[in-house]
Amino acid sequence: MKIYIKIFILLFLIISSSTSFAQNSLKVATYNIQGMRPGTEPATRIQHIINKFIELDPNIIGLQEINEDKSGDNSDNQVIVIGNALSDHFNIPYYYYFEKTHDAWDNQFKEYVGIISKYAFEEQGYFDLQPGVFPRKVVWGLFNTPIGNINFFNTHLSYHSAWVNEKEIDEMLNYAFSKMAPQNNYNGIIIGDFNATPDTPSYLKMINANYSDTYKTIHPNSNGFTAPYPGQSIRIDYIFVHNNSILHTDDSYLFGDKPISQDFYYSDHLGILTTFSNPTNVEIMEELAVPKSFSLSQNYPNPFNPSTKINFTLTETGFISLKVFNVLGNELATLVDEELQQGNHEFDFNAINLTNGVYFYRLSQNNNSVIKKMLLVK
After folding, report:
1. Which residue of 197, 342, 354, 372 is 20 to 30 Å from 100, comparing CA positions?
2. 309 shares its domain with 165
3. Same-domain pairing of 171 and 268
4. pLDDT tens digits, residue range 229-267?
5. Is the C-alpha dihedral spanning 134, 30, 233, 214 positive or negative?
6. Are 374 and 304 within 8 A, CB to CB?
7. Taking residues 196-224, what's their average pLDDT?
């Protein structure tokens, strides 16, 4: 019997992972758009940036060096211009949130850091970071996406002072933790212009804080290049993902590397686009004949740490078995092994001694069984 359980679980894993990869993905972009920097033809560049986003079709975009005229009424704010253009093209609403950081380009324009999203903001906010030459902020949005709830953070960190840059990293990490920990949701993505190369202490702070550089994940032998143009000499823009998240990095690449004309680029930075999936997001398929004698609910909470509740309903009294297995089909725990009366039942499962990952629970009565999947994230 045990070998059949293992085969059954492995089949579920294959079906679940392949279906998730094909149908459930999230495309995230970061781009420092160079604002309205004088001498760079901002009106021309912004239209090319819009066209590039239409081509790439990201779900969530973090922008830095967003500008608008100081005397304006937001009508020329670049995040609004881009968001409205995407809405017009795709005929769906795009949502945006932005916060001012400082006056830029010899105080001619207001500068912001902001987010554009296909998904409505469940929550949003910002945190003032240690100021450097200019004030700096990190902005945050919580989104309900097809691959789960995502905590999305976007920033533009200081340059010149390594101490200030590292201080901002520490503050940003603390802010991100303050938003993720109460939800027990570590689906955290931190993106932006860090003004720090991959060989600096600032970069190492992100790695040591349990974040992965998604571009490096896909291109392990290349640091990549995002700035400056021309030259392609360094990389200071990143999309990081928390390692305790349930997100899988499928792809990551640079964009904006083709000039509009000779030596005239969209920005003095390259953008990065990373595609994520959630291999555990697809519901486990139940057996072909769903038993009529009971129903098994999805555990709650899921993901969980370290305890979760499993509910089921019996339509008739009978001997019940409720067991937990790992992905190899090895039995880890027996929660129920007795006769129970018809009605609703709830049992707790504590995984304090288990490691992060996917587990299965199976409810059996007579010759009927149902298996469902759950995710432990510590």
Report:
1. 197
2. no
3. yes
4. 556 668 999 999 999 888 999 999 999 988 888 878 899
5. positive
6. yes
7. 93
8 A C-beta contact, residue 32 and residue 65: yes
For 204, the token pair is 């190492």
The β-bridge partners of 115 are: 62, 97
Segments forming the whole domain that contains residue 92: 25-277
Q: Do 349 and 255 lie in a common domain?
A: no
Q: Determine the 3-state secondary structure of 171 from DSSP.
A: helix
Whether 192 and 300 share a structural domain? no
Tell me the C-alpha distance between 172 and 128, whole Å: 9
Q: Is the pLDDT of residue 157 over 70?
A: yes
- Rounded to whole angstroms, the Cα distance separating 130 from 101 reads 12
pTM exceeding 0.90: no
211 shares its domain with 313: no
Q: Is 144 helix (H, G, I), strand (E, B) or coil?
A: strand
Residue 242 belongs to a domain: yes
Secondary structure element (H or E) that encloses residue 362, with its range: strand 357-365
Q: Tell me what pLDDT residue 123 has.
A: 96
Q: Tell me how many domains the chain contains.
A: 2
Which CATH number is 107's domain given?
3.60.10.10
Angle made by CA atoms 25, 119, 185, in degrees to the nearest 5:
70
Going across the sheet that includes 294-296, the strands are 294-296, 307-314, 343-350
Residue in 304, 309, 311 with CA at minimum distance from that of residue 357: 304
| Dihedral sign computed on CA atoms, order 79, 80, 84, 87 | positive
Residue position matching structure tokens 């686009």: 273
Mean pLDDT of 116-121: 96
Q: Is residue 9 part of a domain?
A: no
Is residue 54 scored above 50 in pLDDT? yes
296 and 248: one domain? Answer: no
Alpha carbons 318 and 295: distance in angstroms, whole number = 14
Instruction: Give the whole-angstrom CA distance, residue 198 versus residue 79.
Output: 28
Is there a single domain that holds both residue 349 and residue 319? yes
Q: Is the link from the previous residue into 135 a cis peptide, with omega within 30 of 0?
A: no
User: What is the predicted pLDDT for the residue at 369?
Assistant: 82
Q: Are residues 209 and 259 in the same domain?
A: yes
Structure letter (DSSP) for residue 131? P
User: DSSP letter at 179?
Assistant: H
Q: Mean pLDDT of all residues in the chain?
A: 88
